[in-house]
Amino acid sequence: MKISKTLISKEEIENKISEIANKINDKYEGEELVVIGILKGAFIVVSDLAKQLQLDVTFDFMSIKSYYGSESSGQIKIIKDLEYDITDKNVLIVEDIYDTGLTLSNLKKLLESRNPKNIEIFCMFVKKDVAEDPIEIDYSGFEIGPEFVVGYGLDYNGKYRELPYLGVLS
Fold first, then answer.
1. Of 60, 99, 133, 138, which residue is the catalytic one?
2. Catalytic residue list contains 85
3. For the domain bounded by 10-145, which CATH number is listed?
């Protein structure tokens, strides 16, 4: 397996993070925000976003596993839960990639049960036309095709996450 091409450059990613950070800064100016990164993939997105947020922000992380039953329920198992209470807080979930939507949909329902003020979602990469359980994405970086991609948090067997760009693996 090797990277056959660069799909999205480091510069394009940096510009998109700045654009989204500006939108988040404008929306939550003067308010608290809890940013929840979904491990492992979103840690790089969260790190880059954090450097540009000019808000009263708390960062937290969750690690979850998806269990797809016979009905493709997308139920999740929490491996690492939040350290902070999100009751009455503005919450921003940060995910590296959105594909079927099953995991993210169930995660949002779980977090809604903890009574936050509101929940928004930022997905850096959104796969076109594959959502089985469509969910509203409030902030999205790039729409991508069906290729198997790595870099900028996305891995193949634990490798390639550190790449500053998004590449196609073949």
1. 99
2. no
3. 3.40.50.2020
